[in-house]
């Protein structure tokens, strides 16, 4: 069946009026294009994310039919939002078409410095830095990164040494024996980690001291691992001892991490601070590992290399701990604050108090001049010395005395003692120690003036009683101002941070 086509004259021929109209419109459009300003330059790979097209489309879609309505910047990258300029007419106004927004991102190549800053913002510093953390965050993270760098570098050499000692690289041991030795080594480390966890609350109030002790144990463990190269037949006992030391150090690092990060966080961003801190450590560890792999290919001296890396690790660890600024007063910082107050009348700032803190006064040390909450038998060997000072503290919930034979100040607590009583007793003990030291110095200077080479005499009971009475008067006048000035400097005092003993006096003999 043949279809009938319309005649060519009817379908293809334009009337004269239509021809003139087409020519006129063509000339008008050409004139507009010639007089229009050039479009702004865009990058060659500028792309458009269009919800209508479901992906990225090329920049030819951005033409005169689109209108710029908003600009945006996120993580250093700028976006422009366009809307379809072919508006829909309504009875009252013109509106843009629905779902006509185009998001344009300029993918210009970033400068190296800009790329580095973008990486730091995303992976190294918390959001809102530097306003979201304290000023101590930067030096702490700097030294932390250096410590992990040296630690990662040492890990390559110690692991290589362990493998050589156990016989893996030289095929001197059966695979079963190698696996058994390695499992026993790891098992011993886990046992040590479990036993050290009994330190409990010491991780809260002496965290700087335990942190530096843990890092020193990590270094000791690495040294013992290196020693297996000299005596490979002692691999199992040495590797077990090294792994115990390193796992104890790992427990210390993990347990003290959260309080330290908490001290840096200004708001509810402890999770962000922790994540970025761990990322810094991992990046530095990877860099150190990569460097040590390149060094190990040249077969350097293990002793020399380990000594240099150990010095860097210990120095970085010390500076890392010293850069931490805590607001709480543990025993070490409490001692710094009270001694400064008694000498100058002012309480040190948070930065000063933390910098003067002795981080090597470990909590298990028995050589401490002040003992809080001791047993009665440790504080008093002579009943007369107790009966002499007991009336002075009749209105207090503690008793402070000095034992000249041991050279210690003892602060005993009554069973009614509360938090403020324990803090006051600790302050009283420091005041009494200050009075005794001042008396001893005066005695020594007077003996030098008299040019007598006589031995120092221990204070008598009457001397001790006089010192205790003098200290009681000073505490009554100074304890309140000390608390106020400490609070003004931002210090937080709590008796639990002083780690007092559990002994309490229940019945006092009259």
UniProtKB/TrEMBL annotation:
Residues 14-110 form the Protein root UVB sensitive 6 N-terminal domain. Residues 116-344 form the Protein root UVB sensitive/RUS domain. Pfam families: RUS6_N (PF24162), UVB_sens_C (PF24160), UVB_sens_prot (PF04884). InterPro entries: RUS6_N (IPR057404), RUS_fam (IPR006968), UVB_sens_C (IPR055412), UVB_sens_RUS_dom (IPR054549). Residues 347-500 form the Root UVB sensitive protein C-terminal domain. It comes from the Eukaryota. Belongs to the RUS1 family. This is Protein root UVB sensitive 6-like.
